[in-house]
Write a structure and sequence with these properties.
The structure holds 2 protein chains of 2 kinds. By secondary structure, chain A is of the alpha+beta class. Chain A is built from 4 helices and 9 strands; from the N terminus they run αβαββαββββββα. Chain A starts with a helix and ends with a helix. Chain B folds into 2 domains: 2-142 and 300-311, Aspartate/ornithine carbamoyltransferase (Rossmann fold), CATH 3.40.50; 144-298, 3-Layer(aba) Sandwich (Rossmann fold), CATH 3.40.50.1370. The chains are: A alpha+beta, B alpha/beta.
Chain lengths: 158, 316
């Protein structure tokens, strides 16, 4: 069996989903973090492909989740983590919505502030951050701490 | 009446005083202008500015200088002061949230002046309060009235704010005073020298923000830069910011300014310090024409009076 045949066989093992979400074009290495943040529903199937071949980006991670649809907060979390990802909403085996993500303008309630003495880590209030692009940075609206890309990725709320 | 007329012409756009980053150049200049006007007023005229107004002075952590300066300013303007200087005597001790304390206090007072050990509390207070909030320090984050009094002092004693050459010396890593002043001076095209030991350098994000608008230079040598600058802004190496004493001992005596070191300074060069000082400025500097740090502290009164006066007219 050559390499292409192996891949085809492997791909066949992943059952296509009738209803749910497919998160594609995830930068390799970020797939598991996205699953960790979104959480898995024990009642429904999910498939995670890590470091799989991609024509567009050579290597990618891919997540398929049955009967799971993403709300705005979840989409924004993925935007902060993997801005180049594509989110496909599938209904009746058809892709009804395809969204190429990009970075959000702001992050509200989805990111924890890195500053341990920020009021948001001591009182029940929604966190707010403004987002700066190239390089990615998030500035806390309350304590004004600026978080780097790596810090943002570690501090996205589950 | 003249004072009120001049206020109308100013461009103060804020409803709360939380962070120096909220201030436009016009906002800064309108506060400095009002401070100058108030400083020139008779005691009697001044005492009518906050007549019938109540100001809550809420100090959730100990502070003598800032609290007394605010309370003096309130009383000078004829306002009433209510409040506390120790969070242990408030309902916070009973578990009341900070937001609830602020909402309650905004029913009692016309302006809320506050200091809190946690960063971001002033911004949160401004969000939940129906009355203007004046930040007297939120943890290590912001202390905008200190920055405004620094600018007022520079304008008054150096004679200009534009195109200054200023040297910041000492703890540039943890000192919020220098971070805020460096940012505020970007409105005035200041050339900034950062003089510090390697472990206490100006944080990268501040340098990046300043560098967008101003020239900066970084060095460890103090004496070489003294003849170049218009203002030397000295800071205390803050022992309480160091995780261990050994690290503190390595840098605590890094910069000690003496009278002898000022022999090549420009005649009109001024030495500033937010106080309290430990040993970073030798007492023989006090007697020179360069020293203005005690006048700098005194500027806190007219500047805080100006902010209280302006905020007393703000509608949120």
């Amino acid at each position: 069996m050559n390499k292409k045949e192996v891949i085809k066989k492997l791909q066949k093992r992943v059952t296509p989903i009738g209803n749910g979400t497919a998160i594609d074009h995830i930068q390799p290495g970020l797939g598991l973090r996205i699953v960790e943040i979104l959480g898995l529903d024990p009642k429904h199937a999910a498939a995670i492909a890590l470091n799989t071949e991609s024509r567009k980006m050579k290597r990618k991670d891919l997540i398929l989740m049955e009967n799971r649809f993403l709300n705005e907060d979840e989409l924004n979390k993925i935007k902060l983590l993997a801005k180049n990802a594509t989110v496909n909403t599938i209904k009746n085996y058809k892709v009804v919505k395809k969204e190429t993500l990009g970075l959000p303008e702001k992050a509200e309630g989805i990111l924890k502030c890195i500053n341990p003495i920020c009021i948001t880590n001591h009182e029940e209030i929604k966190t707010k951050f403004s987002i700066k692009k190239n390089p990615l940075k998030a500035k806390c609206f309350y304590c004004e701490t600026t978080m780097s890309e790596n810090e943002i990725k570690r501090y996205i709320k589950k | 009446m003249k004072a009120k007329e001049s206020l109308k012409k100013t461009d103060f756009s804020l409803t709360d005083v939380i962070s120096i980053y909220d201030f436009s150049k016009a906002d800064i200049l309108s506060v400095l202008k009002r401070a100058k006007e108030i400083e020139a007023m008779t005691e009697e005229k001044k005492s009518k500015l906050l007549e019938g107004k109540t100001v809550a002075s809420m100090f959730f952590e100990p502070s003598t200088r800032t609290r007394l300066s605010f309370e003096t300013a309130i009383q000078n303007l004829g306002g009433k002061v209510i409040g506390f200087s120790d969070a242990r005597v408030t309902s916070a001790k009973k578990g009341e949230s900070f937001s609830d304390t602020i909402k309650v206090m905004s029913n009692y007072a016309d302006i809320l002046v506050m200091r809190h050990p946690l960063s971001g509390t002033a911004r949160l207070a401004a969000e939940v309060s129906s009355k203007p909030v004046l930040n007297g320090g939120d943890g290590p984050n912001q202390h905008p009235t200190q920055t405004l009094l620094d600018l007022y002092t520079i304008q008054k004693f150096v004679g200009k704010l534009e195109n200054l050459k200023i040297g910041f010396v000492g703890d540039l890593k943890y000192g919020r005073t220098v971070h805020s002043l460096a940012a505020a001076l970007t409105h005035f095209n200041a050339c900034q020298h950062y003089i510090s030991p390697p472990s206490l350098k100006m944080p990268k994000h501040i340098k990046e923000e300043v560098e967008e608008k101003c020239k900066i230079k970084e060095t460890e040598e103090l004496e070489k830069f003294i003849p170049e600058v218009d203002v030397l802004y000295m800071t205390r190496i803050q022992k309480e910011r160091f995780p261990d004493e050994l690290e503190y001992n390595k840098v605590k005596d890094a910069y000690v300014l003496t009278k002898a070191m000022l022999k090549n300074a420009k005649k009109e060069m001024k030495v500033m310090h937010p106080l309290p000082r430990v040993n970073e400025i030798a007492t023989d500097v006090d007697e020179t024409e360069h020293a203005i740090y005690f006048q700098q502290t005194a500027s806190g009164i007219p500047v805080r009076e100006a902010l209280l006066d302006i905020l007393s007219r703000v509608k949120k």
